[in-house]
Amino acid sequence: MMKKPLFAVVRLQLAIILVVFAHGAAAQGVSAVVESRPFTPEQTQSRSAEAQNSDALSLLLDQNQQLRTEVRALRGLLEEQGFEIRKLQRDSLSRYTNVDQRLSSLES
């Protein structure tokens, strides 16, 4: 008799976890996109290879920094969601235990 309510609690917890993760994924939004610049033949003639390498390196460093910032934000969000999940699990277990105790007292 105890397995059915426990199974229902586990299913409820899984549903809550899915909702929390779906909400977190939707809240992330879209990150910035680096747009390409139009190509003109004068650019290749007027700029040296060193300047182009420097620009490419600068772009890579900027992208690296943006990705690091995004990873920090995602880790923070993951930590918050983990806390919320643990809190929901504790609350769910507490409610389940409370209902079980009340049913046991009614049976006796």
Write the layout of secondary structure elements.
Layout: H1 3-27, H2 41-46, H3 49-107
Helix pairs in contact: 1-3
Short descriptors:
108 residues, mainly alpha, 3 helices, 0% strand
Structure, explained:
It is a single chain. The chain has helices at residues 3-27, 41-46, 49-107. The protein is an all-alpha fold and 108 residues long. The protein is built from 3 helices and no strands. The two termini are 16 Å apart. It is rod-shaped and about 90 Å long.
Query: Overall 3D geometry?
Result: rod-shaped
Cα separation of the termini: 16 Å
Q: Which structural class do the helices and strands define?
A: mainly alpha
Strand content: under 5%
Order of helices and strands: HHH
Helix content: over 70%
Helix count from the secondary structure assignment: 3
Flag low-confidence runs: none
Estimate the mean pLDDT confidence: 79
Task: Report the biggest beta sheet as strand number plus sense, adding barrel if it closes.
Answer: none
How many beta strands in the DSSP annotation?
Answer: 0
Computed Rg? 27 Å
Short description:
The protein is an all-alpha fold and 108 residues long. The protein has helices at 3-27, 41-46, 49-107.
